[in-house]
Each structure stands twice: as structure tokens, then as C-alpha cells.
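This section describes the prediction task in plain terms. A model, or a person checking by hand, is given the sequence of a single protein chain and must write out its three-dimensional structure as a string of C-alpha cells. No templates, partner chains or ligands are provided. The sample shown here is typical of the held-out split.
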Amino acid sequence: MGVILLELKGEKLMSNQFAAITLISDLTTVRHYCHRTGIDKIPDVAKDYLVVNYNLIQSFFASVTSNTTDIEREELYENHRELDSSAISSSFYQMVGRMVDQAKRHGRRIVILEDDVHMILRALEYAKYCSHGTVAIVLPEMSPIVKWLE
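The expected answer:
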């Protein structure tokens, strides 16, 4: 597992868990921004966020599918209320991964909906519970995203 980075609410977090939680927090902020402003399409700065964090996001998706089976993700789902059953199958990660690929390939030219961000979030929630091996501390760029949405 990664290096212990910090303690949150009495629970020791590994660097990769903290990075996943940071991505989740930032992308949740994007969703709230869309709801608050009444827009369906995410703003360009949120597309930029997905592009600059592409490698980190894709590494989490790959880690989830390579380190857990569908059955193990189903067990995680049963034990963690914040997880969504739609993100259990490996095919879900392939679909979400292609969406993030499109964001990187097309940047600001692509339309990304708030619901697309919700799909990414559902996948990242599982990453908090998966082993990612020993990794260097990598934190998301452009975080916290709230300062870019103002």
C-alpha cells in the first residue's frame, strides 16, 4: 500500500486514498456548481480538470478492475453505503474510461454533462477501497476546483 499521508476522522489514509478522496471532492463540487447554476454541461474549467488529472483518474479505474473482481466489488457495495451498484461490473469502468479518454482527446470541444461526472464519481468511490500498490504521492492538479469555478 502507499505511504500514510494523513489521518482523517481517526482513520489513517494512504496517499492514494487521499488522492481519490480529493478527486471525489472536487468532482462533487463540479456537480454542485452545475446544480446551483442550473446548467447540464460542465464548465470548461472542469473539462480542463479532467484533462490535467487524466492519468491519475485512469490509474484509479485500472487499479479497481485489476485488483478486484466483480464479486469483490459487490461485497464492497454491500459493506459501504456510499457505493453504487452500477459501478460493480468491469464493463462500467471501460465505459467511464472511454469517456475520460474522449475528454482528454477533445478537451474543451467535447460536451460533458453533469451526469457524466456522476458516472466518474461512482467509479472513483470504489477506488478508495482498492489497493493501488506502492505509489508516489500524487495529488490532483487544479485542486481545490472551487477556486477555479468562481
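For orientation: The CA atoms of residues 80 and 126 lie 9 Å apart.
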